[in-house]
């Protein structure tokens, strides 16, 4: 039986946490944004040696969709975009110090009872991109 056949995968707190922050770059992105407070795209890319523009942009979109990163766009010429951590992001990173996945998920659900993980295609900036996925 592979872990994909496991009936507990839908409820597994570690699986849920990893779906939010799993991958090669997401934790590093979250830590860099949190340490900076607010950071612009090119400054963030400079802190992450070896990351491509495509991977960084995609990861930032996913983190924004999942409510861990806040994207602010300023209508200036040229357009200025800044990224900042949300309270959920700060809680998630602080919870890592006492890494108990069951407690982490319980705390997250208590603080965000109405929040459900949105479908990737529900995000406004993903419109028309579903065919590419």
Judging from the principal axes of the Cα atoms, what is the shape?
Answer: globular
**Overall strand count:** 3
Q: What order do the SSEs take from the amino end to the carboxyl end, as H and E?
A: HHEHHEEHH
Portion of residues within helices: 40-55%
The radius of gyration computed from the alpha-carbon positions, rounded to a whole number of angstroms, is 16 Å
Strand content: 5-15%
Description:
This protein is mainly alpha-helical and 133 residues long. It contains six helices and three strands, in the order H-H-E-H-H-E-E-H-H. It has helices at 13-21, 26-36, 41-47, 53-65, 87-95, 101-111; strands at residues 39-40, 69-74, 80-85. The two termini are 28 Å apart.
Give me a quick take on this structure:
By secondary structure, the chain is mainly alpha-helical. The chain is built from 6 helices and 3 strands; from the N terminus they run ααβααββαα.
Secondary structure elements and their pairing?
Layout: H1 13-21, H2 26-36, E1 39-40, H3 41-47, H4 53-65, E2 69-74, E3 80-85, H5 87-95, H6 101-111
Antiparallel strand pairs: 1-3, 2-3
List keywords for this structure.
mainly alpha; 6 helices; 133 residues; globular
